[in-house]
């Protein structure tokens, strides 16, 4: 039987050891993890094949199967990302804000590990490694709860990680996996505030809400991207089309893929028609607003319903809506966005500035694809999650999001006057 | 009847106006608040007198009465603190981390307001002004829920603030007070996630736990200080005594006052006796550990019970415990501290470093009083709260803790490759 109190206590204890490792000790540990993953790659891929087989027989969606799949190339990509994290500066022990206060104290802030992370995620095996590596680099322990569909893959990945921890003399409890599928364990994890410092739910709206409702530990919500792209009338339409196609088609199953295209209503009907035709050639299924259907009767059978503009599609579906100006686009986004990623395509500076100033999502793109919202693309090495809330961390969460700090004040037997 | 949905909606709307104010508009608004508080000071102090009278007749503790009291000097102090906030740099609109990414995008982070703050606090009228001023300076709206004992004072303070908002053309809903004493409103506020971005509970353990259990909005816990001071054997005992007395006696009713004194067991009994005697001369009531009672039989009647070392006293009580070395002090702190403020008095660098490296509380003092954990003392202008959690903000929370950020990426019709 899985005993979460023991898991929590052991994680806390391991986190104390981790907080005292030097930068080079931590990097050596990460190198060892990369090496063990390479050495165990056959068993990892074999485990994933079993998970995939079971998942297919259970009729998982294409999006879920794509997330679950680990092949040689993807595993190599995951291992290569570890090198990126090794190359990053150690986020711990930095002293900033050195100040001599009016009261005579020398005050500074020193970055410290958060402690123990609790991460609950869907069936994406890359997350198991990404989070372990980032957690350890920032001196944290982690308790992982992966999707049940990826159980065997995760056990195989964890075995490799544990080999590296043991080899380097670090407590195995530094990274622990709750592999027992009993759902009640999630609720227990969310209330393990005695030992866990932060909960990161990576999954759909139901999981996020469950965590917000039940957790007594701070929760970082995110990962749900209802992403918008606004095509202004002042834009290069050929180049724009390439960006729109990229945002929608390149990897439609992930959170930074485009969900809704907002088109300035002054753009002429032929231009619009040829753009939508190209999207259809790329297998995109359009859900258009009333006004698009009026101007292009060929789409009368593809009209969007009321809820379609509140969907994170995670597939090749795309909502298309006409708006009369940038303010209408901003208003639509403020009502329908999940605060993840939005883009504007425009050559007009005033319009661009209005959009950038008014859209308060975690990532705002000017003449670029929404697909860039990603820790590696942002130069953060890898990412633990993409936060769509406003506290602590926003957008792709890298190492810094896994740290806290303490204030240190030096005096000379100084009382407060 | 108080309609929290309307309060929330109006706050959100006001926050949009506030996010667009320039630095000078915000500073002019704060000046107007200072002026209106001065103009209304008679009615404010009269309201406080009524609150004090009622509180005394209800038998509130001395600590609560002291927190509730507003006199001319304290009100002037609160108004003067507004000038400090005006003098601070605007935390909004700063662009940092300008980077040209490998993918060709120009990426930067821009600081933005959090949005709407929900603050639940005990009967401390200064909090009403401090929070309003800091919230506005950072472009945020705030919904305040003050202690019922300070209801009339808060209404008077809010009236002055509203006069300033109106005078400056800012929506009155920028700062709202839930003055209806119905307790169910707190629960409703904690679930107003559609409109409120952050909850700050300033109050005792019960309020903090209530917020953690019930809120669907991120909560910043804090303000509970079980503060320790470790007196090492290598220390100047005369100077140390002055710091200990300051930490305990200067203002015993606040969260950064000393709760437990840890004394190195090598310090000789006479020195210890004379220090404890001086504390008693200062009206401090000692609760000593078994070993102190053995060495100083005069304190046999003052022995601490099991729970006494887990108390935030908020009064002139002080726990006293012998420890055999700095590691024992660190261990005691890690088990009993609330993560607020701890201090070491020592002249030995190795001992100091061991303490500073291992104690992970929000504020760690070397040869200084714990009483310095305070936004104004830290040069933050004023403070919204003292956070004892590890996410988002730690220790005294000033303006920066009231901001979020967004990532802005500029491309040239850039798809992700």
State the main characteristics:
417 residues; globular; 15 strands; Aldehyde_DH_dom (chains A, B); Aldehyde Dehydrogenase, Chain A, domain 2; four-stranded parallel beta sheet; Ald_DH_C (chains A, B); 14 helices; Aldehyde Dehydrogenase, Chain A, domain 1; oxidoreductase (chains A, B); six-stranded parallel beta sheet; homodimer; alpha/beta; 2 domains
List the SSEs and their pairings.
2 copies of one chain form a homodimer.
Chain A: H1 4-19, H2 23-39, H3 41-57, H4 62-68, H5 72-87, E1 95-100, E2 106-113, E3 116-121, H6 125-137, E4 141-145, H7 151-167, E5 175-177, H8 184-190, E6 198-202, H9 205-214, E7 227-231, H10 237-249, E8 258-264, H11 269-281, E9 285-288, H12 290-295, E10 317-323, H13 326-336, E11 341-345, H14 349-358, E12 363-368, E13 386-387, E14 395-396, E15 403-414
Parallel strand pairs in A: 3-4, 3-6, 4-5, 7-8, 7-11, 8-10, 9-10, 11-12
Antiparallel strand pairs in A: 1-2, 2-15, 13-14
Helix pairs in contact in A: 2-5, 2-7, 3-7, 5-6, 6-7, 13-14
